[in-house]
Structures are given as C-alpha cells and as structure tokens.
Amino acid sequence: MRILHLIYDDLDNPWCGGGGSQRCWEINRRLARHHQITIATGNFPGAKDEEKNGLRFIRVGSAKNYLLSRLSYTFGARYVIQKEDFDLLIDSFSAFAPTFSSFFTDKPKILNFYHLLGSHALIKYPLLGFSPFWAERYAIRSYKNIVVISKSVQELLETKFKKERVYFSPTGFDSSLLDLPVWEENYLLYLGRLDIYMKGLDLLLEAFSSLSPRYP
Predict the structure, then answer these.
(1) High-pLDDT (> 90) share of the chain, %
(2) Which InterPro entries match (predicted)?
(3) What pTM did the predictor assign?
C-alpha cells in the first residue's frame, strides 16, 4: 500500500521536534517493512527531501522562519496531495498548520488527532485564535475515521461531536527505559513545554498547592 502521511513536525525540526514527530517516526519505520511511506513535513533550516530507514520525506513550504514555515505548509500541502499517488492519506492534525486535506481528495483517509484545543485557542490568542479553532472544528467534522492517543479525547469526540469511528491508539515508549535506575527525591518534576493552555500546568499547580502542606 502507498501511504501519504501529512505532519508539520519532524524530529529534526529546531522549532518543534515534539512527541508527534517521534510517534510518526516509530510507527512509519515499522510500516515501511511492508508499505511505501511518504511523509510530508513542514520545511525548516537544513531540511531536504530525503529517504531514511525506508521512509521518503518531502519538505513543504518555506524554511525562512517559524511563522512562515507553518503558513506555507498549510498552503503547500494541497499540492502534495494532488501530486502524489497514494492509496491512503494520514493527516496528523495541527490546529496551527492545518492542511484541510479532506477537501482535496476523495481517497481513503485517517485523521490522527492528538488533543482537543477547543476554546483554549480563543483564550490564548483572543483575535488570532479563531483560525485554529475553526480549523479544528472543520477537521473533526470532515473526517469519518479518527485515531486518538487518549481515552478522554475519544470520549469527547464521541459525545460532543457524535463521531462514530474514533479509534484509541496509545503512544508507546522505548522499553529499555524500564531498565534505568529509579530513585525518589523530594520534588515535583514537570518535563515539557511551558504552555498553560495545552499542557495542563494549571492543574499541576493546583495539585502542587494541595500536596505542599504534606510535603514541606
């Protein structure tokens, strides 16, 4: 099968390089044993069209700066969809670099959906937030088959948006990490992007305030 995977992020992208790109890499390098995989990512400094581990990478848009990279990816993805010959399209959705892929092909397609941004986009960006808010709604409503990485998002899509084909596929991890030594210290550790709207830091701080009297 020929699979075209749209995802803005890439492991080598200096502006992102997040968990979505890691998941994309791990899954697709395994699928490449039996299928032809093309991954279309956003452009970034030093990026080039290339093949790695049996995966074909296409860079879409401008590498001049982060904002232009995302905007040009949104506008350029449609040409990749129209040009490439594929049997299945996978779109790893990003509200800040949407491709509107369902509008440009009638072929079988899957929306890979990580989290529900919802009204947080309007809170974080009062004026500019309408675009990602609308893009997310459009993507959810235009796709029949959606893959999510958390049960909570699955339940939201099934109840709030009445989606019938939402499939839960949790993110894996490197099992060798289980062999690392473990120890406990008297602190609370958060490892991730400092984004109160998407990373739940408000909940973490609330939990910390409740725990701190017991662990001074």
Answers:
(1) 72
(2) Glyco_trans_4-like_N (IPR028098)
(3) 0.89
